[in-house]
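Progress report, Aim 2. The chain analyzed during this reporting quarter is listed below.
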Amino acid sequence: MSTSLDASYIPELEQEVLGALLLSGDARLVPRLLEPGHFIEPFHRDIFASIQQAAAQYKSVRLDLVRNVLAATDDMEAIGKRLGISVPEYLSRLVGGTVRGVAGLKDSVPALLHQWGRFSIGREAERLLIAAADPGTSPTELIRTAATAFDDVSSTLRSGRHRKTLHTIAEASEDALSAVAEAMQRGSGLTGTTWGLADVNRATGGMQAGEMIILGARPSMGKTAVALSIGIQAARAGAGVGVISLEMGARSLAMRALTDIAFDDHGTIAYSDLITGRVSEADYERIVLAQRRFDALPLLIEDASGLSMLDIRTKFERMAESAERNGTPLRVLVVDYLQLIAASTRYQGNRTAEISEISAGLRNLAREHGIAVLALSQLSRQVESRDDKRPMLSDLRESGSIEQDADVVIFLYREAYYLGKTKGKDPDAEADRVAKLAECQTKLEFIIAKQRMGATRTIDLFIDVASSAVRNAVRT
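Predicted structure tokens for the chain:
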């Protein structure tokens, strides 16, 4: 090999994996996530490729079978001269030299992948250094190709991350009963993180760890207000909450949060007035009091546009580290919103495939880290063409596999928004419209359209649009 990383290459990591597989002879133990290209030493690549071929052809990876497959494809004599030892003897030494054995594959395979990851990143860095020295090189193209390469490495390492995925029914049921017992002990009936909305908690048991929740609506329905209000209530209950906003800046989100927090004690203080500075001295003092309460919440905000899934993972991990240090582990991540996440170059031009990749990325993030991911989503314009403009699951189907990936799908609907945009055909119809508008001005329909672990239903909530406050329908 001709790389400055040569000195850091540890051949024993690869030898341990190969030796354990040959020792076992069991084709079922061949890791599906490993490829020959993950081995740095060329001959080790050939050995692993022969192991894969023997597993497929003979359903066994016994030493003699692998040796025969290898002999049919490689020049054994030439390889022996390069190694300074015959190939059969080298293979025998692999088997005899394994330290961890078959049981150690759970540790040795990730260690091998980490070495491959280091080398891959190092080689890409060397390529970047050479390309950057050329005055004719486009920085944008360098960033694009490097991001793709790093994303590929990151994706492989995530796939190889060791975590327990096989459970006996006894283990799974014990975990389930523990969650129920904890909920009973708390007296809240929650097995997840609170939404801060009583009827929604009763219908869902809270926002569950490891689940991706989609909150979808057309513009002006209050997606951001609802998500932020939910995040505030979860943080008030002691859960660490992260918000990644690809649309709205942290200052604007904070202003919405302040008017929401001030609402319960002081009533409506319009968010728009706060932005323009048209607030009275009394209202300003109330906002200052709300700010002191807001400061104490375990809620982190990241505002940046054009983020890819790799960027979101990186920012989430920084948030999680910060939350852990502060003693409030991150339990909820709000992403506003899904369609603004930058797609990778894998499916460039195929928007459905791009959205599917992003949706799967958010779902995997939730499951890998055991958090609830609340992802906001725009809905297709076909909603506007219907007489009944309440969203349906079919309004998501043009956006890749969002419906399939989501554990819970929620839609928001405000009849007042549409009533405010129309006029009655005659005086009587106009009077009916005005009366109906007054009646539903603060009504928000929270439509649970999909729930893997529960029923679907519509819950009426209270919303004060001006102050971005979302509450239970019956307020005391």
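The chain has two domains: 6-159, 191-407. The domain at 191-407 is CATH 3.40.50.300 (Rossmann fold). These observations will guide the mutagenesis work planned for the next reporting period.
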